[in-house]
Amino acid sequence: MVKDRILVVDDEKIILELTSMILKNRGYQVLTAESGAEGLAVVEREKPAAVLLDYMMPVMDGMTALKQIRQRFPDTYVIMFTGKGSEEIAVELMKAGASDYILKPFNNQDLVERLENVLRIRRIELHNKELRQERERLLREIEKWNQELEQRVEEKSRELERAHAEILQAEKLASLGHLSAGMAHEIRNPLNSISLFGQILRSGLEQDPEMSGYADKILKEVDRIDGILVQLLAASKRPRFELELVSVAEVLAGVLEGFDAQLAALGIDVDSQLLSTPPQILSDSTEIEQIFNNLIANAIYEMQDGGRLGVRLDHDATKIRVDISDTGRGIPKENLNKIFDPFFTTKTKGTGFGLSVVLRIVKTYGGRISVESTEGQGTVFHIELPLS
């Protein structure tokens, strides 16, 4: 078994030869140096386990060499040779980092025992150091795992919240579908009667312009109620549709072009990022157009004093992604869970069916829609439509 490498530094050749002979006979690999500077160079090159270092040397004394070794090479332990046996020197050496000191002239057996004791302490301390480093590494790994676990829990929680919200929206749409179908039937019957009698009244009041105008107002309000019923049905039930292969990129570009004049009039910049051209999907082009029309119209409504409309299109192997953003007022946090509800609106004019229709269409195609908003900074809608 090859023992540790030991460096002996002394300006007396006889000490070097004697010490080398003693240590080599005990199986140690022995290196020698005749000055402090040479000793430092050997330590840097050979990384010995321990250094037997003379205290009194010309040019660079042992104390200076000791301090540099302990500072630059902490895994190399130092035993000092000294011919001065005062307690002050011993304390000074130990404070500077010496592991032990041996008085000259020394006893051969005592030298070996003192060296082996220092090497034994060194092994223990280096092992403890490795254990501490391993402990720190494990703690860092555990901390990393904890952070990853927390992130996964947060992601799963958000996914569960989104899934729960989607289930609630689906239930609302289903309930609305049953309710609106019944309401439309029940309301349209008396509405048709009102319309019929209104037309009769108008035909009998042609000679009285004022009264005829009242009849026209009645018929106009009848039409308005019927229009609301149509929107209510559209939000909950799919109207007539015609499936064909549709390019989402072309539909989106066409819808944007239709808003050109309005965007220019309001001073709204458009940041259009059509990053890819997705494959065509089997859909009703009017429905796809309605998604983008409603979302872009809402974005423009929020930027009456100018801003930036963002439109981003991309796709991967399974889905098309469209993001539509604005720099408007944003949606209050308390309203985020309500924006897809029928009749909910913050506009002074409007029925609150626009986003309900968007949700119904997106769900029809097995897609997903979500929203992020910060008050005073704007809103972004994320739409995903499956390619299959």
Automatic annotation (TrEMBL):
Reaction(s) catalysed (UniProt annotation): ATP + protein L-histidine = ADP + protein N-phospho-L-histidine
InterPro entries tied to this protein: CheY-like_superfamily (IPR011006), HATPase_C_sf (IPR036890), HATPase_dom (IPR003594), His_kinase_dom (IPR005467), HisK_dim/P_dom (IPR003661), HisK_dim/P_sf (IPR036097), Sig_transdc_His_kin-like_C (IPR004358), Sig_transdc_resp-reg_receiver (IPR001789)
Ranges of residues in domain Response regulatory: 5-119
Family matches, as CDD domains: HATPase (cd00075), HisKA (cd00082), REC (cd00156)
4-aspartylphosphate PTM positions: D54
Documented EC number(s): 2.7.13.3
Residue ranges that the Swiss-Prot or TrEMBL entry lists as coiled coil: 121-173
Source organism superkingdom: Bacteria
One Pfam family of this chain: HATPase_c
GO MF annotation list: kinase activity
Keywords, ordered alphabetically: Coiled coil, Kinase, Phosphoprotein, Transferase
Domain Histidine kinase: 182-388
Gene3D superfamilies assigned: 1.10.287.130, 3.40.50.2300, Histidine kinase-like ATPase, C-terminal domain
Name of the protein in question: histidine kinase
Upper classification of the organism: Bacteria, Pseudomonadati, Thermodesulfobacteriota, Desulfuromonadia, Desulfuromonadales
